[in-house]
Specification:
2 copies of one chain form a homodimer. Chain A is mainly alpha-helical and about 160 residues long. Chain A has a single domain, classed as Up-down Bundle (Ferritin). In chain A, helix 1 packs parallel to helix 3, helix 3 runs antiparallel to helix 4 and helix 4 runs antiparallel to helix 5. Chain A is elongated. The N and C termini of chain A lie far apart (about 50 Å).
C-alpha cells in the first residue's frame, strides 16, 4: 500500500507502536525476574500494568479513526529487546545487573517517547483532537517512567553497583 | 567476562554506543539520499559530520579510561536501522517519505539520548569528571538534533505531507 498522505503514515506508525507495546508486555516479566532490587521489580510490574492500559488506549485510537486494531512487526523494538535479552544472559553482580536492566528499560522508554511524540505531531497536524488526547496521556506516562528509572538508578542502584 | 562493578558496565555500554555510532554513519547517507526536502538533506549531512566527531570524542573517552577503542554489535541500533531501511523501501509520496524519515531519525536520536544519558550517570557516580565532560557534550548535541528534527517536521514537512 502506498503512503499517500500523513493519515496513511499515522496508521502505519500506530501499527508499529501497537506491536512494540505487545513486545514490551512480553519482555517486562523477564526483566522483573532478572532484577534484584524490590524497587526495580515494582517499577517493572507497575510499567507492565501501565503498558496493558496503553494498549487499550491504542485500541480506542484505532476505533476513533475507524481502523481495525492491528500491529506490524516493530523491528526496532525487536532489536532493543534482543539487546536486553543478551544483557540478561551476561554474568554480573546483582546490583550491576540492576543498573544494566535500567539502561535497557530506558532505551525502551526512549523508543516509545520518540514514537508517541511522532504520532502526537501527526494527530495535531491532522486536527484529530480526540486521538491526540489519548496519545498525549501515554506520551506523558512514558516520560514519567523514564524519569522514575533515572531516579531509582541515581538514588540507589548505581552507588551499590559502584 | 563477568560485569563486577559499574566501571565494567560503563565500558560495556561505551562499546555498545561506539558500534551504534558507526552504524549511524552508514545509515545517514542513505537517509539523505531518500529525502526530498533540502532542509532535511542538510540536517542529515550535518548530523553525519557531527556523528564522526562524536566517534572521535568516544576515542578520547576510551583513551582517558585506558581502554582500547572498540565496539560491540549494538543489536538495538541494528533493529532501529532495519526499520528505517524497510520504511525507505515503502512506496510513498515525497513529503510523506520525508516525514517518515524524520520519524526514523528521531528514534535513532532517542536511542542515543538514552544511551549517553546512562553513561553520563555512570561517569558521574564514578567521579570521572573528564569522561563526563566529553559525554555531556554529545548528549546535548543529540538532544539538539532531536529538537531540530521536530522543528523541521512541524514547520514544514508535516503540513506538506497532510
Amino acid at each position: 500500500m502506498k503512503l499517500n498522505n500523513l493519515n496513511d503514515l499515522l496508521i502505519h506508525e500506530l501499527k508499529d507502536i501497537y506491536n512494540a507495546e505487545q513486545q514490551i508486555t512480553k519482555a517486562l516479566p523477564k526483566m522483573k525476574e532478572a532484577a534484584s532490587s524490590d524497587k526495580l521489580k515494582k517499577a517493572f510490574q507497575d510499567h507492565l500494568e501501565m503498558t496493558e492500559k496503553q494498549i487499550e488506549r491504542l485500541d480506542k485510537v484505532f476505533e476513533i479513526i475507524g481502523e481495525k486494531s492491528s500491529g506490524e512487526k516493530c523491528k526496532a523494538m525487536e532489536g532493543i529487546i534482543k539487546e536486553a535479552d543478551s544483557m540478561m544472559s551476561e554474568k554480573a553482580d546483582a546490583s550491576v545487573m540492576d543498573a544494566a536492566l535500567i539502561a535497557s528499560a530506558q532505551r525502551v522508554e526512549h523508543y516509545e517517547i520518540a514514537a508517541y511524540g511522532t504520532v502526537c505531531t501527526y494527530a495535531k497536524q491532522l486536527g484529530m483532537d480526540e486521538v491526540l488526547d489519548q496519545l498525549l496521556i501515554t506520551l506523558e506516562e512514558e516520560k514519567k517512567t523514564d524519569s522514575l528509572l533515572t531516579e531509582i538508578a541515581e538514588k540507589s542502584i548505581n552507588a551499590k553497583a559502584e
